[in-house]
Amino acid sequence: MTTNHGGDDNLDAIFKHKRMLRTQVKKVLKAIDPSLRSQQDNDIQNIILGAPWFKSSIRLCAYISCSALREVDTSKLLSEILKDPITGGKKLYVPRVEDNNSHMRMLNISRIDDLVANSMDILEPAPVDSDGNAREDVMQTNDPVDLFLLPGLAFDRSGRRIGRGGGYYDTFLENYQELAKTRNWKQPLLVALSYSEQILEEGVIPITSSDVPIDALVSPEGVIPISAAAFNRYQ
Questions:
Q1: Which CATH architecture is the domain 6-234 placed in?
Q2: Per the annotation, does 7 bind a ligand?
Q3: What pLDDT, on the 0 to 100 scale, is given for residue 119?
Q4: Which end of the chain, N or C, is more open, meaning fewer C-beta atoms within 10 Å of its C-beta?
């Protein structure tokens, strides 16, 4: 009896292609002039701050940018969300990596000081606050999230995204989307932040069934709506 390993071979080819793209994009990001990257950071964040879909979002999940990873800066966005949580009305959840098995949580913070550096010098929330109380987990909240602001290494205009290979965001997003479905919540808008150099030609990025597509992409040139949900909210 012969076993067909064609599917495994195809997955191996996809993962190999993704590793190659990650290597290429990392080199490109490293070569960007710091002043140009800073300008792109400002442009991207200003576009988001001025967007109606951002202003109308009440509950948000957002990544904490890491300069060593050359991620699009989110410090201005986080400061805006957290500047006045009582009257501003927005609630923020940020990621905390729990283990090496793609297990990530999104925990509520109310100020930047709630973040601490982990072993890789990446800022993330401690599991308990200064009073020893467990932070609210977005998977256990009674209200739906309106918007996810996502990082990544490479994107295209059809919604494909390549992360850093750990699978943390795809796993989390899939679980959250399933939670929203079971609770009959409106699905959140998935928006990725990208430098111009990270946007690849359509068809270059391979995908598997576990890759979660994004709804929209924000680059220094503006918002690129992709899904029907993004087009509806972009109008």
A1: 3-Layer(aba) Sandwich (3.40)
A2: no
A3: 80
A4: N
